[in-house]
Amino acid sequence: MSEGKLIVFSAPSGSGKTTIVRHLLKQPELKLDFSISATSRAPRENEVDGKDYYFLSLKDFKQKIKNDEFLEWEEVYRDNFYGTLKSEVERIWKNGKHVIFDIDVVGGLDIKNIYPKRTLAVFVKPPSIEELKIRLKKRKTESPDKISMRVAKASIELATAPQFDFIIENNKLDVALEEAYELVSSYVGAEKTAK
């Protein structure tokens, strides 16, 4: 691989971006590896440090910001930081793979601005805010207050969609998965393997 690329998937929470990214990671011909984000929030049930996120204390996260160790970072909610460590991107490129991100819209656009020629930025759009609310409730991972906060934030995030290279509307998951595959496959120049 002459030069590793960056593929960004951003969306409001509950839009299906994580499901799409997981699907793409299972396609070996795409040569993708997941960029594990760092966060200062506590792990949710079943989340594993170094697999789902790098879980850092608030103090450690702020120290890494001071040390300029992040490609991008954001305080998403009060004292809830998320970011991409530069070392994570370098690790993946050294392994001869392209980096795929499942990241909030601000972080996604930051990466696109830092590496404009090496980044494909895709926005995953929910069918509606109402549908988003239903999906978040079905997860049963957050309080009604947290869900309300995410829904309020989603309206703001949806306004950023035109700044991305492509928008995938996730009405039907199988259609969204196929659309995402075609976009990424074309971008990285992958040959589809016979099944």
Account of the protein in words:
With 195 residues, this protein is an alpha/beta fold. It has a single domain, classed as P-loop containing nucleotide triphosphate hydrolases (Rossmann fold, 3-Layer(aba) Sandwich). It is 41% helix and 22% strand. The chain is built from 7 helices and 9 strands; from the N terminus they run E-H-E-E-E-H-E-E-H-E-H-E-H-H-E-H. It has helices at 17-25, 58-66, 86-94, 105-114, 129-139, 144-158, 173-188; strands at residues 6-10, 32-34, 38-39, 54-55, 70-77, 80-85, 98-103, 119-125, 166-169. The strands form 2 sheets. The chain has a 5-stranded parallel beta sheet with strand order 2-7-1-8-9. Strands 4-3-6-5 form a 4-stranded mixed beta sheet, sandwiched between helices. Helix 5 (129-139) packs antiparallel against helix 6. The longest helix is centred in the last third of the chain and has 16 residues, at 173-188. The chain is globular. It starts with 5 loop residues before the first strand and ends in a 7-residue tail after the last helix. The model has no long low-confidence stretch (mean pLDDT 91).
